[in-house]
Amino acid sequence: MLAVTSQPSRCAELRAAGAIPLVADLDQPATLARLARLAQIVVHLAPPHSAGEKDQRTRNLAAILPERATLVYISTTGVYGDCDGALITETQTLQPHNGRARRRVDAEQVLRGWARRRSGRLAILRVPGIYAANRLPLERLRKGTPALVAEDDVYTNHIHADDLARVIAAALFKAAPLRVYHASDDSQLKMAEYFDLVAKAFDFPPPPRLPRAELEKVVSPMLLSFMSESRRLQNQRIKQELGVRLHYPDVQTALRAMIATGENVEQRE
């Protein structure tokens, strides 16, 4: 397995994980030439730039992908925008509300175009919040960053990193061409409920609650954007079409497993 990185300093880490590192940079098309000969099965994880309306990195990748390659693209559920808490399927109309989401929509469209022109096999995974033992909001809880009061709160969606890896592996071999999948668990939690679960599991006080009008004054614009979109994800496609059995079907199950390992909170930071 090849792992592409733009940072030579990561090569040892990737080798230790069992991958063969290849230094290339999606921002520098000239460095991608070797990929055109080597990449027949690709997992595209790279995020777009932090500004603009287009994802030039994905455009650079699509330009060198070989004919009939298989590609799984890790997109985001932010492409749907705010759905007012509705339970949605993969056919939901895309209404991206910010630049990050619009760049993801652009990447999806670019890759669909590549797949149609080059007979590529493309699957798009729309992924919500990824968590794991080392990806919990512990620092936020330490700082006492407030959450929304219940009447203003939003639904969020989650997937454990290990389960996401299983979905990716299944999509590489079982996904229908040009198919979209929600890589999400079964949780249906509001954001503050998620923070409360993590706080309780690791003996932190629950975050204080503020009405939206007050919270807007004390959190960053980026954090506020995550607290302004509410949706729940239907995930039957990954189960019925990809045959994925989630090891962590909800956040509560994963937190219990983390506690059972005996690791302490400081080791996760």
Automatic annotation (TrEMBL):
Domain RmlD-like substrate binding: 68-213
Gene Ontology MF annotations: aldehyde dehydrogenase (NAD+) activity
Highest taxon of source: Bacteria
A cellular-component GO term for this protein: cytoplasm
InterPro entries: NAD(P)-bd_dom_sf, NAD(P)-dependent_oxidoreduct, RmlD-like-bd
PANTHER family: NAD(P)-BINDING DOMAIN-CONTAINING PROTEIN-RELATED, PROTEIN YEEZ
Name of the protein: Nucleoside-diphosphate-sugar epimerase
Organism: Collimonas arenae
